[in-house]
Queue: 2 jobs
Job 1
Amino acid sequence: MKSLWNDKEAQHCKDELALRVYSSRLLGSNPELVLHGGGNTSVKISEKNILGEEQELLYVKGSGWDLATIEAAGFPAVNLQHLIALAGLKSLSDPQMVNELKTHMTSASAPTPSVEAILHAILPYKYVDHTHADAVVTVTNTPDGLARIQEIYRDSVVIVPYVMPGFDLARVCAKEFERQRNDNTRGMVLMNHGIFSFADDARTSYETMIELVTQAEEYLKVKKAWSIDTKKSSKKLPADKLLKISALRKQLCDIKQSPMILTTTCNDAVYSFIERDDLAVISQQGPATPDHVIRTKQLPMLGNTIDQYVANYKKYFDTYSSKVKSPASTSIEMLDPVPRVILDQELGMCTLGQSIKDANIVRDIYQHTIDIIQRSTMLDEFQALPAKRIFEVEYWDLEQDKLRSAGSKPEFSGEVALVTGAASGIGKACVDSLLARGAAVIGLDINKAIGSLYDSANFCGVQCDITDSDAIAAALEQGIMLYGGLDILILNAGIFPASLTIEKMDQQTWNKTLDVNLSANLKLMQQAYLFLKQAPRYGRVVMIGSKNVHAPGPGASAYSVSKAALNQLMRVASLEWGSDNIRINTLHPNAVFDTGIWTDEILKARAASYGMSVDEYKTRNILKTEVASHDVAELAAELCGPLFAKTTAAQIPIDGGDQRVI
Ligand code: ZN
């Protein structure tokens, strides 16, 4: 492991806190040291308060911040003397400890200090760095872990036996530090947990971390327990994998009574692990560090049938529900410690989360857990914390406290939507409205710009010609492997060909218009049907129709016919799919000018042909109002929400009121 310290960059840091931010980010940039919000760092600084009195403060990582991207605002300052005094108490409950941390900060609006703040306070060094480094926990999670750590570090680290994170751990660390420290002391190893480094300057503290972790890596290399023999897997995903994935998601969501994202990872590293004969033993041992339990919640579920997972998941859920007498205001789904990882013989690894971000965090943590277990077993055998200790972390007061304050979820949280024609106009506006409501969105468009339209894990843009069945199938595969299913379908893509009278209509224009505006939607509906049927909160489809359905215009036969036929398709689908609780409705927008089709020149020309100004032309409706893509998108999103839960086969105009339609 290499030090990333760069003197030039460090010179730009204007004070001690800025250096703390800098070296914290260096730690955070290495996933073998710190993963997704794991690890924490601190710096002790003397400052004058508002009365001009000098006070010692501990700036320590605040909750909700990630070391990789932390800023000065991510370090709340806490009264150092008070923290040291707290460490002298015989006991302090977790809620009491959080209260003391929160009431001794210098800023009321700063984030809650890390639960390991007292531990940072008692270490008598300016800078303290703490990680759950893979190499160190790999060594500590073996039967002779303690002896091995002693062999690696001799007297250069203080060794602390496993204690659950919180006040007791801080006390034990304080005691062990006093007892074991000597002139060579450079760090502290917490068994089955992680490692601390410290120094009076930022660089030494950071580079000590790198050196200590490198020593553990070197040890593993010498013991031939470093390079993992990842076999090229011969496994092929089953043909019905997507249906299996979405059925699995539906059944787990049904137990939880809340939609979730389920992401599937099937790489060689995952398969090499799953194919091990001893999988049932090594995967059920326990987590590599308590930090992982907080996010992965439970040991992975193993098996190869959906029924096995469903029974297992239900057992966890029922056990939990019977234990927690939650007040009415506390949503059980925010607290449940049900499993988040599934290791399936066919599918590989599936990870669950309220959002794709959560599911990806669990995925990343478990991929590191796989490496740790693989290496521990090469060294000797993987021996994690006993089950009882895991349980303590799950019901950890602090964690529950954090979850309780998480607040309410957005309306479509855990749901997956697919939007066609998503790169511009009404389609893009629909993506915005759905993302704003918490959905994960698969956006299809023939324009390849769709791929980079949003820099968000919640969006998966796929270039796709929707008249091509194979391209639709490939897009659905990509989306469902990533998000686990399909709940909402917005059929928006369409073309508006140049004006042609029936007399002048050519076959090519006619066919192409019907292909894109009508037949492509049939193909997509056919392929999406079985997934919509498995939507935890029932499938919803919105078609973007047109005013032309009820008020056609001359010269637009192909367009009007295609939209009218699409409308009829919606009506038939509502009849056929109603018994599956799939709702399907149409919006009829008119005169939406903020789309790709309308340029300023075209608008001016059209307005002039009616003898109107552009503004008059845009608002020529009963309400004299302009209809924007965003207005249509918001109504489309609402059609998928609870407000319209009892509406199907409806046609709703969004046109400011059109005399011809009325
Ligand atoms: Zn820790």
Job 2
Amino acid sequence: MAGEFDLIARYFSWPAHSDSVNLSVGDDAALLDISPNHQLTVSVDTLVPGVHFPVDTSPYDIGHKALSVNVSDIAAMGGEPRWFTLALTLPTYDTAWLEGFSAGLRAAAESYGVDLIGGDTTRGPQTISIQIMGETPVSQALRRSAGQMGDILYTTATTGDAAAGLAIYLEQLSELSAPQQYCLDRLNRPTARVAESRVIRDYANACIDVSDGLLQDLSHILKVSDCGATIYTDQIKFSPALKPLYNHQQCLSFALTGGDDYELLFSVPQVKSKAFEQAMQQSGYTYQAIGKLTANSGLIRDRQGNPLTATGFQHF
Ligand code: ADP
Ligand code: MG
């Protein structure tokens, strides 16, 4: 049996975990209960082959990544990811692709505890759009505009691995070393920092997820928070995988301008920074202080005052 409804039933209908889902895939629309004292938090992201992932990325990784990059936006708001819809455009009914994609999507959905509650399926050039819905405790959302002069800038974990992964992929090597494979995995299977975000939202002012490059994403915070920033380029740490692969300058360039890491970049008031760092350490989450917010200039500088330019990824 083939056809649109068979495809949906086979690959995109699985039982909802959450009691909040009254009605899921199969009716004209889904019905959801929202928790009291929470705000519905909504975002959508589209993945296009060759733009958002290399064309030969495994269908499993595509499914996993499509959901992760969306969940990352909810984490960047300090929200809890809850539900998602999937708008899928495919050129053919390719069962091998659908099986891999659906398995990756479902594994990611289970790891983040989110339910697939509907979607749309059409024929055409491949695109994958996911709309994510989450809930944020009222007045706790982490807005880009809430940065304050003097705040310490942090990222979760390290940045630069995914950009290195793309460079490694483009070399088309016949064999990859363990650190090279690690970087490629960071590109193909990013982790949305949902757990970290639960700690961060209790301390941070502004927050954004790093999808287009640290400096470029930072510049979005600076613009709407009316601040400048100093970045401690001399003390930024790289992952143990990235460090041996490139020289310091190349690592720094990946870390500051490379996209696709999906780490959180956020600002914490200086008076709260000690308590914040203790809370992160207690939970076993890695983070690093990478600089601070300064007086309004819109500019990003290093400690010596040299301007750092934000040339991350832009579609147009
Ligand atoms: P309608 O014609 O009323 O818009 P559709 O035929 O598009 O309904 O979809 C039928 C049901 O299947 C709906 O509940 C819709 O949300 C769901 N659905 C369609 N495509 C997908 C998909 N790719 N993933 C999950 N659910 C889907
Ligand atoms: Mg429809």
